[in-house]
Amino acid sequence: MNFHVMTLFPEMIENGLGESIIGRAAKAGYISYQAVNIRDYTQEKHGKVDDYPYGGGAGMLIQPQPVYDCYEDITKGMKAKPRTIYLTPQGRRFDQKFARELSREEELVFLCGHYEGIDERVLEEIVTDYVSIGDYVLTGGELPVMVMIDAIARLVPGVLNNEFSAETESFHNDLLEYPQYTRPPVWKDKEVPQVLLSGNHNNIVKWRLEQSEERTKERRPDLYAKYQRKQEIIKRLSKKKRFYIHMMELLNRGIGEVLYERNMDIVLYEPDSELYMVSAESKESADYLVEKYLKDAGLVLTTSEEVVQVLIAKKNMRVNEKVWQYVYTLKEPLPVKYKDIRRLTMEHLSYVTEHYDENEAYLRRLIEKGHMFGAFVEDKIVGFVGIHVEGSCGLLFVDSACRGMGLGQSLENYIINYVKSLGFTPYGHVVEGNVASTKLQEKNGLYISEEPLYWVGFE
Ligand code: SAM
What we know:
3 domains; 21 strands; 5-stranded parallel sheet
C-alpha cells in the first residue's frame, strides 16, 4: 500500500513516520510513503503558495495551482483515480472502521492544509474524502495525516509482527481491550489477576472477554450498545448453531457488518472478500433482501434456497458450490501427532498456488494475514491448511508422496486448535459429495449442519 502526502512540511512527515513500526514496515516493503512539497510546484518566482482570502477575513489560504499540479504529478502513473483525502476539521470523523476501510486501498493521497486552509476550487477538483481526526483545530494537516497513516498502516498485513494483535485490541468487534499485565507479579501490593497466571487458556479467554465487556459498558456505552445488538443476533442464530455458524462467527470475530436484521431475515457483509451472508425466512423476504441489499453483490453465501432462486432469476448468478458446515463444539483441543507444523511465509506462496485451485492474490492475502500453516518434512513443505477470509477452516492439501502418514488429520486438528485458542469456534465447509473429507470431519468429532448452504457467484 502506498501513501502520498501533499504538504508544505515534508520533513515533518518523514521524521514522524520514519521511526519504529511504520518506519520498519516501509523499509521491509509492506507499505511505502512519500511526502511531496506543494511549494515545489508553485509558478510564483518567490516560491509563494498562499494569498489573502477574497472578501477579507483572518489568515492566508493556499492557492489552487500548486496543489493541483502537485496532485497531477503524484497521480500521473496511477491506473485509477485514487482516494484523495483532505484533512480538515470539517470532515467525517476518523475511526477504526474507517481505518479498516482505507487499509484495503492500494494508493492513498492526502492533502494537508495550513494557514486558514485551501482554495475551495481545487478541493472540488481532486478531493474524494474530507476527514477530521477530532473536534478541535490544529495548525496544519501534518499531525492528522500521521495519525491516519499510523492507524491505517498497522492494519496492512505484515506491518505488525503479531498479525492477531490488530484483531484483538480496542475497537475490535466494538469492544475495548481488556486490561493487561506484565512482570512483576506483585507491584505496590497490587497482584496480577490469578487467572492470568493459571495457564488455563480457556479461562483466560473467558476472563478477558468479561473484562472487555465490563470496560466497554463503563467507558463507552455507545459502543456497548452496538456490541449488544450483535450479541442479540448471535443468540437468535444460535438456535440452529451449525447451520448459522458462519454468520455467528463473522459477528463474533468482528469481521462483518450487519446490513439488515429482522427475525431470521439477516444480511451481513464481509468487506475484505466482498461477501454477503444472507438468511431469509420466505420468498417475499428473499425478494426484498436481494433487491435492497444485493444489487451489487458478486459473492453470496446463503442458507436459503429462496435467495438462491432470486439471485439466479434476477441477477443471473449461479451456485458455485453446495456445502455442509462442520463445526467443532467440544472443549478439548484435538491431538496433533505430526509436530513440524509452522506458519507459512511468502516464500511458500508458489508451492501453495501450485497445489490449490484459488487465485494467487487471495492465497497471498491469507499468507500475509498469517492464516496459512504448513507441514514440513526435513525442512521441506509437504502440505498446508488455512483459514479463509470469512472465517472457515479449509485449504487442506497434502503432497501425494506423503499421504497416509496422518498429515492431513494433523493439519486439520492443528487449525482447529489454533482457531479455538483465539477464542473462536472452528468450522469448515465440505462440498456435497466429498466423502473423504466428510469422513475426516466425523472422525475428528465435528458436527454437521442440519441443512446445506449455497455459495452463489458469477463463476
Ligand atoms: N479554517 C479552517 C476551518 O475552520 O475549517 C481551519 C484551518 S486549520 C487552522 C489548518 C489546517 O489544519 C486545515 O486546513 C487542516 O488541513 C488541518 N487541521 C486542523 N485541524 C484538523 C482536524 N481536527 N482534523 C484534520 N485536519 C485538521
